[in-house]
Amino acid sequence: MSLKRDSFPSSVAFDDISASLKADDRERKDAIKNGNAIFAFTLKNKDGKTESWYIDLKDTGTVGNGVAPDGKKADVNLSLSDEDFGKMVGGKAQSQRLFMAGKLKVSGDVMKATKMEPILKKAQTKAKL
User: Fold this and answer.
1) Maximum Cα–Cα distance for the chain, whole Å?
2) What's the per-residue H, E or C state across 75-111?
3) What span, in angstroms and rounded, lies between the C-alpha atoms of 53 and 121?
4) Which residues have C-beta within 8 Å of that of residue 18, sequence separation ≥ 6?
5) What are the backbone angles phi and psi of residue 91, rounded to the nearest 5°?
6) How far apart are CA 15 and CA 55, in angstroms?
7) What is the pLDDT of residues 6-49, one digit of tens each?
8) Of 28, 59, 80, 128, which has the highest C-beta tally within 10 A?
9) Prediction pTM value
């Protein structure tokens, strides 16, 4: 099932991240070991609508719609525009710069947010944004 939403063009990256995690069991386990958190992404599109996706690097190494898997809570919440997320995953913007410019909002365990960068970098090689 695709995670892409037509009104959120950069959401195709969640399919790419999911495929990356499913492709190599060893890398998925390594990502879980290093990430040790559930990351929630809330994106805002040009129409002002928001939608959320999660990346579970705490237990399962899966990606899905919503802020967390059923019965669980996100450790890190990241909010940004769909356009900025596309730039970040496409390697055209760094998360730290977006954060410092106020374009990326982080709540929850901010230190764990830094562990998301390697996963996004893996998706950069697959994403065609």
Assistant:
1) 40
2) CEEEEEEHHHHHHHHCCCCCHHHHHHCCCCEEEECHH
3) 18
4) 3, 62, 63
5) 80, 10
6) 11
7) 999 999 999 999 998 998 899 899 989 989 999 999 999 999 99
8) 80
9) 0.92
